[in-house]
Design a protein that fits this description.
binds zinc ion; elongated; single chain; 4-stranded mixed sheet; SH3_Tf2-1; alpha+beta; 5-stranded antiparallel sheet; 300 residues
């Protein structure tokens, strides 16, 4: 970080010679703006009244807090310091903790840590490139439990079997979601009251067990998930997970950004899906995405 205080300036001279001067521009700026900050000025007066605490004044007039330079309340200077520590050629977009550790060795101002957190959260490159190390978004949405058997079925085919005597080589499997019955063949007449009562009792038991199983599954699944909601019109990033030799959403290379966008949310579909306004180049992509594929765009 020591390099941050220096700036190399090339001087344009008419002859073949070029001159370089090294200016400690940032430090000079901090020092010159310190008197304009009323809080720092108050501290300076306290020091003169021998009530200094952790503050000291250098021989050249620079105010320090525990040997760190006191940065005055000036947007431009603070932005320059944050910019140099985060996105200059000497830095590689550090996270907020690393950046704070780097900066606190030399600089101090009230609310510095919060300012660093805000700056990193708003960095467009970090938002598009860095992976999120948090629980995935969108709580588990359990399906409604059917009221009666054979209301909700799933089906599958087992194919390429050896030919039977009747010339068949496949099996069609139909499963009822409530009772897990595999076939409706052999269902008894429902006009018999005893049979009807027995069926009702079985369905009630099956529903109760299905609800219990769903509740348990949801509580386990939601331990590693968190809620995230967007409003219509919010700008969001879309996860693309680029892989080698796989071209999705126009992104190819492995080191491409993990997120593209931002795109505007057009509408919410159900509890955990959103329709996005994709650009014309992605017109072939279905524009509804689960919330776990979206990331909030923190705007500056
Ligand atoms: Zn960044």
């Amino acid at each position: 970080m020591g390099r941050m205080d220096l700036e190399v300036v090339a001087l344009e001279v008419p002859s073949m010679l070029a001159g370089l001067i090294v200016q400690t521009t940032l430090l000079e700026k901090i020092k010159s703006l310190q008197p304009a900050d009323s809080n720092l000025q108050k501290v300076r007066l306290d020091i003169e009244g021998e009530c200094s605490g952790d503050f000291t004044i250098d021989t050249d007039g620079m105010l320090r807090y525990r040997n760190r330079w006191c940065v005055p309340e000036n947007k431009e200077v603070r932005k320059l310091i944050l910019q140099e520590a985060h996105r200059s050629p000497y830095s590689v977009h550090p996270g907020e903790t690393k950046m704070y550790q780097d900066l606190k060795m030399h600089y101090w101002w009230l609310g510095m840590k919060a300012d660093i957190g805000r700056y990193v959260a708003q960095c467009l490159v970090c938002q598009q490139v860095k992976a999120e190390c948090r629980f995935s978004e969108g709580k588990l949405q359990s399906l409604p439990v059917p009221v009666w058997k054979w209301e909700d079925i799933s089906m599958d085919f087992v194919v390429r079997l050896p030919c039977s005597m009747g010339g068949h080589d496949a099996i069609w499997v139909v499963v009822d979601r409530l009772t897990k019955l595999v076939s409706d063949v052999g269902e008894r007449a429902v006009l018999d009251p005893d049979v009807l009562r027995e069926a009702e009792e079985k369905v009630r038991l099956a529903r109760q067990r299905l609800l219990t199983a769903q509740s348990r599954q949801k509580s386990y699944a939601d331990k590693c998930r968190r809620d995230l909601e967007f409003a219509v019109g919010d700008p969001v990033f879309l996860k693309v997970s680029p892989m080698r030799d796989v071209k999705r959403f126009g992104v190819r290379e492995k080191l491409s950004p993990r997120y593209i966008g931002p795109y505007e949310v057009l509408e919410q579909i159900g509890a955990v899906a959103y329709r996005l306004a994709l650009p014309p180049k992605l017109a072939k992509v279905h524009n509804v995405f689960h919330v776990s594929n979206l990331r909030k765009n923190v705007e500056t």
